Amino acid sequence: MKITKTYAEKDFNTLKSFIKEEIEKENYIDAFSLIQCCSNLAYHLNFKYVDEDLESYLFQMSQVLLTLPNFKPSEKKWVFYDSFGLDNRGLTQQYLSALDSWNVEYLYILEKPHNISSSKNIMKQVTDNPKAQIYIIESVSVDNIFSNINAFAEVQKIINEFAPQKAFLHIAPWSVFAITTWIRYENLVTRYLINLTDHAFWLGKSCLDFNIEFRDYGCNISNKFRKIKNNQIIKQLYYPILISSEFQGFPAIDEDKVVVFTGGAFYKMYGEDFLFLNMLKTIVEENEKAIILIAGNGDSIPLKNFILKHNLMKKILIIGNRIDISEVFKRIDIYVNTYPLTGGLMSQYAVMNKKPLIGFNDRVVPCNNAESLFETTNLKFTYFTLDEFYFEINKLISSADYRKEIVSNYSGLVPNEEQFSNDLQKKLSNNEVYIYKDINIDLDKFCNIYCDMENNYLKQYDLIKFKWIGLKYFRYSFFEALFLSIRILINNRQRFWNKIKKKLGI
């Protein structure tokens, strides 16, 4: 079955129609699961950006499952609520560093991750601050909504005792537990939602007082399509955490080669009949000196098959998912942004390491314009015709002097830690309203990119549905349902066996 916007909307609305019934039956876990499934479907294909019904259902359940908090907020006390806890990813460390510099007390609340070692730098940062506390919610994790409905009371007790004045919410697009909890603090705690995924659907409009965006594109989406008021939108450009780690090495590369680098989640490179991979093919065919390195994660099979098919094994090399990404950038010559979806963090890594940044994009998909990630109005990173792109990349490859000239203008494009903290503090103290550039956004074009990737490369749509709701709300044939269930079990077999071993004490 080909997945289209119409097909996805039908599934979304079918699922949504059952939520009210589950709430009326007080089957709250099932209701949350349905909401989470709807959110995952919308996020996966981006056929919409907000759903007022889902927000309303979360509000409705919050009134039943949580008590009305009653405390006097303590001045200069903050909560940082985190759904992720991932070192060097997302914006946890940037905002915690800001709180550290403001000399305020804060409570760091973390939904327990699969592997707590993924948060070791974050944990150290919080424990090193005598004014900070940590609370880990054991009953809430990435894969289950919560194992006990009493988790709400548990977390609310912690928040109420701390009595914060303000809160940063750093949550996933489907964080039903966090949103339901923070809805209850309306008119008591000032809640700032950190918008990590400005280009995609997310839940959380019902639990924010202010929405922190990082670029004009997100400001446009939130105001025009999420219907968040302009006086609730704050823009704060972020900076990446530069990771200090030992270099893991490269494959053998001749000294005279110009190293062109690209990377990110592999799905961002698939689409439009492998246009991006064909661009890389053209680069190495037109430039004898060029060699391309690709780092990333996800399904690499389409990429590997493309390289084999075109006999590019010595010219395009996959170097894996690199934890030493800062060291990689120090050793490359040019960074090329991925297409049809670009990577914001990788673009910033390139600029901060003074490596030429270049990319191709369709004019009607402004989400991919790298210029929006920097404090600049006069530098060009994005080209809208392939002829322009090839002319520029060939010039960069052929001339080391030109590469030096390009990066000489890269200073100050990304705020440093001190600038970020000071700027953010000023904006929040004034609740400054940002006047952003109006951007025309083609919703259908953007959704079609995701449908193309799903139909031709990812093929995850059915697994997303069955991950959250099983067979209860869809009328598949027995054999199709059995087949999909088996696929889910295989996909999660390691996690399943780990749970069994834990129960048996192995």
Structure commentary:
By secondary structure, this protein is of the alpha/beta class. 43% of the residues lie in helices and 14% in strands. The protein contains 20 helices and 13 strands. The strands form two sheets. It has a seven-stranded parallel beta sheet, sandwiched between helices. Helix 3 (28-45) runs antiparallel to helix 18 (461-469).
Layout of SSEs?
Layout: H1 5-16, H2 19-24, H3 28-45, H4 52-65, E1 77-82, H5 92-101, E2 105-112, H6 120-127, E3 132-141, H7 151-162, E4 166-170, H8 176-183, E5 190-194, E6 210-213, H9 216-224, E7 233-235, E8 258-265, H10 275-286, E9 290-297, H11 301-309, E10 316-320, H12 325-330, E11 334-336, H13 344-352, E12 357-360, E13 382-383, H14 386-398, H15 400-407, H16 417-430, H17 443-458, H18 461-469, H19 478-491, H20 493-504
Helix pairs in contact: 1-3, 3-18, 4-8, 5-16, 10-14, 18-19
Brief characterization of the structure:
With 506 residues, the protein is an alpha/beta fold. It is built from 20 helices and 13 strands.
What ranges have pLDDT less than 50 throughout 5 or more consecutive residues? Answer: none
Shape: globular
Mean pLDDT: 90
Reported for the largest beta sheet, the result is: 7 strands, parallel
Going across the biggest sheet, name each strand in turn: 3-2-1-4-5-6-7
Helical stretch count?
20
Percentage of residues in DSSP E strands: 5-15%
**What is the tally of beta strands?**
13
Using the CA coordinates, give the radius of gyration.
23 Å
